[in-house]
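The protein record filed below.
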Amino acid sequence: MDSTSRVLLDRIQRSFPIVSEPYRVLSETLGISEEEVLERIAILKQSRVIRQISAIFNTGALGYRSSLVAMAVPQESLERSAQIINAYPGVSHNYLRPGKFNMWFTIAAPPGQSVESVVAELSAKACGLPALVLPAIKKYKLAVVLDVLEDGDWDQAEEKLDLPPTESDQSFRPTPANIAIVKSIQEDLPLVPNPFGVWADSLGMEEHELLRTVSDWMLHGTIRRFAAVLNHREVGFRANGMVIWNCPLDRIDEAGAIMASYPEVSHCYNRPACADWPYNLYAMIHGRSPEECGSVAQRLTEAAGLADFQILFSSREYKKIRLKLFWQGN
């Protein structure tokens, strides 16, 4: 991958242009033709570097309730339990990690349902396995932006933008028209000169109306970002670790802000602790090796003045997809 493709990846991860001809805008900032931008993105998709370019929603703003869940699964039941959990459409990620609670998955329940009841049902199907439901109490950072730049690329790199909002300040109206927009723009953006126009035509609306809606939803946090999502491993990030700390409650906001300031951290949350699980501060870090992740975790711990922590690496990926909202057609 050359410098131009790396800078292109950096830009479309951070801020994709919400305009009628976004690829032309990108071409002007990179000093290449629109055709070359389209060709480069096509190649990056074919080589599985780019998973997709789309809206990334704040699911809570759309009425969904989500949580991280840790389940204690005996070794002999791993395959069956993973199949049961993965069958639920609201499960987007599922990993095997070390420890008693070894199956970790993220789950979203649609409006009108509770995460706890869905998890209880899944647990019952998996022979009543114990589970920890760990919803976010407070979100400090949600922004997966992988540093793909190398020495010499920074002259073309854009100034880093502020972190996207973690919460919405506007109520989503679940009208049939709005739901249709969500279901459309959560898919991969068409690789044509006027992609939003293609989406607008399929929705029976004017392009300027769709652009205005997307921009408004981004402004108010209904859409957290509109950006490219990359395959971590294809750009060299072959290790990711979930770091967990037992943080004093009177210091948790301070510590969370420190964690969120580190570029290696993509997600950072305050989650509930319990008798079986005393950890309440979580951060996902991405690195090119487990050793690099371990070094970052140690720096985070020292910067926040904490001590009691673990880093849990995933040893197996059972499921990793983009969550499809309104899968029930409601």
Notes: Residues 24 and 292 are 37 Å apart (CA to CA). The chain has a mean pLDDT of 91. Residues 3-54+147-158+168-233 form a domain with the Arc Repressor Mutant, subunit A fold (CATH 1.10.10.2890).
